[in-house]
Design brief:
Layout (H helix, E strand, L loop, with lengths): L7 H13 L6 H8 L3 E10 L5 E10 L7 E7 L5 H17 L5 E7 L8 H17 L8 E5 L5 H14 L26 H14 L2 H7 L9 E5 L3 H12 L3 E7 L2 E4 L6 H11 L9 E3 L12 E4 L18 E3 L8 H10 L2 E3 L1 H4 L2 H15 L8 H19 L5 H8 L4 H26 L6 H19 L5
Parallel strand pairs: 3-4, 3-5, 6-7, 6-10, 10-11, 11-12
Antiparallel strand pairs: 1-2, 2-4, 7-8, 8-9
């Protein structure tokens, strides 16, 4: 099989076309869903610390406005180009549709290496980018709401919201112009670990579906499963953490400098601390080094989690992958050729477009919090605790028995913001998984879970367009 080179956007379109055949929609409507609606490519000058002027290349692409606002992260990377941003924006449309988050898809990117700039330079670049977006009406709580992505985080989001508020004085919902903010700036508890936790919830639900486990030859449940994680960034770290806490064994972790393996299991927090201290995950006590990071993808394991960059598993190495389940925590880590190889081998691929939707789901909760101007749990926490205390007291009086202290605390606890956010995310991932699996099982011709996920997304976006009256 030829390892044909696709642009990232072409890969997404290829997957879309593959799924569109299993839908009933008119060709014109499918073309509209596929197309990127608005492409804003910009260049602006920024003065660097040494006095020279650098012209910065940046993008904001809105793929679909079938629902507004549009939503999608901003990445800082030298690999940023229009094709990549278009692909990521279109994936956001499908992702939001699958997990029932009422946003259109968008994405942004600035072509810089954050490592090569001082914090002050990054701040100037981020603020200028925000000003450019405001000028063209490409940002706002009801227009387009960015978020963190590769190379950005809470710090950059706080610069964006501050710049936006200064340019739009008195806009009461201004905090909702961006998500992934620090808590003090209107962020939400649970955002940081959201994507990794969503990956865990999604795969845990897949592992709880007996007929899917039968196909892969595994027993139901995640307990005792061996897991390989590629990438120890935010997503990889939290994915590893929740799998370990859920009873799985993290047998290998890969990063760009190499990988480490320990059949007895690794603790991601210890590995992270080791990397912080030594600058590398290699030579971790008790683990074996794997010099070539890519070799970790070919280890014998139950679940493989690529949580780094796109196209890491392709026509060349897919045949050597021995995992039974691949959970796409990154965006686009598999090429279309890899998909075909895995489908033929009976390897279950849990697709990125919904599996890593934890970030956008919790971003949606943050946006709602910003619009309602009240944190989750503030209104009902004490009421719930008082009511539970009262019920428990009544039961103890009636039975004459006392509940153990640890159980008492658990029963009496009223939900905090983080409890509600995690609960909302769990509900989202479980119901989305079931919806996709139902579509897959209802049509035996659908070859894989990714195609079923696309069918799910296409149907929901198409219904929106039809209900808007744009298409008959």
């Amino acid at each position: 099989m030829s390892n044909q080179q696709y642009s990232f956007f072409e890969s997404v379109e290829k997957s879309f076309d593959k799924a569109a055949k299993f839908t009933k929609w008119d060709k014109g409507l499918l073309e509209q869903i596929k197309a990127c609606n608005s492409i804003y490519s910009m260049k602006f000058p920024v003065k660097m610390d040494d006095g020279r002027i650098e012209v910065i290349e940046a993008y904001r692409i809105q793929h679909s406005q079938h629902k507004t606002p549009c939503k999608g992260g901003i990445r800082f990377s030298l690999a940023v180009n229009q094709d990549e941003v278009m692909a990521l924006a279109s994936l956001m449309t499908y992702k939001c549709a699958i997990v029932n988050v009422p946003f259109g898809g968008a994405k942004g990117g600035i072509k810089i290496s954050p490592r090569e700039h001082s914090a002050y330079e990054l701040e100037k670049i981020t603020r200028r980018y925000t000003a450019e977006l405001v000028k063209k009406n490409f940002i706002g709580p009801g227009i387009d709401v960015p978020a963190p992505d590769y190379g950005t985080g809470e710090r950059e989001m706080s610069w964006i919201v501050d710049t936006y508020q200064s340019l739009k004085p008195g806009e009461i919902d201004a905090a909702g112009c961006v998500t992934g903010k620090p808590i003090s700036q209107g962020g939400v508890n649970g955002r940081r670990e959201a994507t990794g936790l969503g990956v865990f919830f999604g795969i845990r639900e897949v592992c709880n579906i007996p007929e899917l486990m039968k196909k892969t030859g595994l027993t139901p449940g995640v307990v005792g499963k061996s897991v390989v994680v590629q990438g120890l960034g935010n997503v990889g770290f939290y994915t590893a953490k929740f799998f370990r806490q859920g009873g799985a064994k993290i047998i290998a972790i890969a990063e760009y400098e190499g990988a480490i393996y320990n059949a007895a299991g690794l603790n991601e927090e210890e590995v992270f601390a080791h990397r912080k201290a030594t600058g590398s995950i290699l030579n971790f006590p008790g683990a074996t080094n794997i010099t070539n990071s890519g070799d970790a993808l070919e280890l014998e394991c139950d679940i493989l989690i690529p949580a780094a960059l796109e196209n890491v598993i392709n026509g060349t190495n897919a045949g050597k992958v021995k995992a039974k389940i691949i959970g796409e925590a990154a965006n686009g880590p598999l090429t279309p050729e890899a998909d075909e190889i895995f489908a033929a081998k009976g390897i279950l691929v849990v697709p990125d477009m919904y599996l890593n939707a934890g970030g956008v789901t919790v971003s949606y909760f943050e946006w709602l919090k910003n619009l309602s101007h009240v944190r989750y749990g503030r209104m009902e926490k004490r009421f719930t605790e008082n009511m539970n205390t009262h019920i428990l007291g009544q039961i103890e009086n009636l039975t004459g028995k006392k509940v153990a202290e640890s159980e008492r605390n658990s029963i009496m606890h009223g939900a905090d913001e983080i409890d509600l956010v995690h609960s909302g995310l769990e509900e989202t991932m479980i119901s989305s998984t079931r919806e996709i699996v139902e579509i897959w099982h209802s049509n035996p011709e659908i070859p894989d879970m990714r195609t079923a996920a696309y069918v799910c997304a296409i149907n929901k976006v198409a219904i929106s367009y039809v209900e808007l009256g744009i298409f008959p």
